[in-house]
Amino acid sequence: MNISKYRIVQPKLKQEKLRILHISDSHFGRKASFEEKTQRMTDILQAAESLCPDVIAMTGDLVSRTADEEALKFGYMLLRMLSRKAPVLYVFGNHETTLPEEMRIALLQKIGELDIHILNNASVNLCGVDFFGYVLPNSCYKNENGSYRRLEKCSWTEIRKAIGERGENPNILLAHNPMGLAAYADWGADVVLSGHVHGGIVRLPLIGGVLSPERKFFPKYTKGCYEHEGTKMVVSAGIGKLRFFNPAEVVCVDLVRDGAECLK
Asked: How far apart are CA 103 and CA 200, in angstroms?
């Protein structure tokens, strides 16, 4: 598993540096073997141990919609062990929102036993930074017929209805799908953390990611750091799911008060 590092300047930061470990798309599900799930969890925990983050941000698809009891146990165990290392922030992705209802309730009940900040259209202030979590409507992922055509686009007005206005503090928005970057910027996000696209599933030299989960070729945002009207967005290639020439990764974002930015 790769660790990708980014350094983003935020002059309003109250401390000199805030280190965020960004984890996305671990996809614990019944299709992965016990050994595969164990390896994913071990790799994530080793990264958390070596990076010593101040905050751990998880941007969805902790489990797949095909999750069984074993997959839920892995997701819960990972959250429990990460919460011992730093405050954990967690927002749902499209797989959590489309879990069978009993599975989703069981997941939330288990998470409720831990000291985890569930940011499903909610916010929390940590270290002088406002962290917001936005859950995109399922219609941004599939239409009512179950196809990927004419998907609903994210809008800043819907974001404002869901999570309110940004404040005066520096803010970081956790939003599973990166395709809403323009709307996130219009809402006023300083930094966005996203995943979902799995690095484009297949990555080719000089071209990058080839395919999105919505079956779109050459998606605009696949992995790395992007900017739109002053908003920086860091997209993780994620950990689970099928991938070719596209290693699993966790992301380390150092938010710094001054100095030079280091963006891959």
From this structure: 28
Whether 165 has a pLDDT exceeding 70, the answer reads: yes
Residue 75 CA to residue 68 CA, distance in Å, equals 11
Question: Which residues, in sequence order, are CB contacts of 249 under 8 Å at separation 6+?
Answer: 1, 2, 3, 4, 199, 223, 236, 237, 238, 239
Tokens 């219609």 belong to 139
User: What class has domain 2-139+154-256?
Assistant: alpha beta
- Averaged pLDDT for residues 238-252: 92
CA atoms within 13 A on the CB side of 183: 18
pLDDT grade for 145, boundaries at 50, 70 and 90: confident
| Length of the chain measured in residues | 264
pTM across the whole model: 0.95
Confidence at residue 242, expressed as pLDDT on a 0 to 100 scale: 82
| Amino acid 61: pLDDT | 96
Q: Does 143 have pLDDT greater than 70?
A: yes
Tokens of 259: 């100095």
d(CA 92, CA 100): 14
Distances, alpha carbon 154 to alpha carbons 37, 100, 198, in Å: 32, 24, 20
| Predicted confidence band of residue 264 (pLDDT cuts 50, 70, 90) | low
CA distance 6 to 235: 11
* Residue 219 three-state SS: coil
Backbone angles phi, psi at 2, to 5 degrees: -85, 155
Rounded CA separation 198/212 (Å): 8
CA pair distance 10, 111, nearest whole angstrom: 31
Structure tokens at 148: 């990927």
Question: Across all residues in the chain, what is the average pLDDT?
Answer: 93
Where do the domains of the chain lie? 2-139+154-256
- Determine the Cα–Cα distance for residues 260 and 258; give it in Å rounded to an integer: 7
